[in-house]
Design a protein that fits this description.
Layout lengths: L1 E9 L4 H18 L3 E7 L8 E8 L2 H12 L2 H10 L6 E9 L9
Antiparallel strand pairs: 1-3, 1-4, 2-3
């Protein structure tokens, strides 16, 4: 198992738009492509409260590449994402980490 941790750093005031996009659009595409989420978090205390952190679970990097690429190139997804940013951009920067569990991890 591989866990992908993604952190979306939003433009000021744009976190609600990102949360809405996940709720109304993105999660449906994740389901369509079999992308399994572990969870989503916003920052309660930290350097910035304009971020969304989430984790995805993959069997392998090959599975991730196949499913993520299919999702990212979906014409309907591209159109809907663009529509949510027609007024102004939502995400300024994305951090991406691929994690593997240790032998003593509760999640393996």
């Amino acid at each position: 198992m591989i866990v992908e941790m993604r952190i979306y750093h939003c433009a000021p005031t744009r976190l609600p738009a990102l949360l809405d996009r996940f709720t109304s659009t993105t999660l449906g595409f994740f389901e369509k492509y079999g992308i399994e989420q572990i969870g989503f978090w916003t920052t309660l205390i930290g350097p910035s409260n304009h971020a969304l952190t989430y984790m995805l679970k993959w069997k392998s990097l090959a599975e991730r590449e196949q499913k993520w690429n299919a999702f990212q190139t979906d014409a309907e997804w591209i159109a809907k994402r663009s529509a949510t940013e027609a007024e102004k951009p939502i995400v300024e920067r994305v951090e991406n980490h691929f994690l593997t569990p240790t032998a003593f991890s509760a999640l393996r």
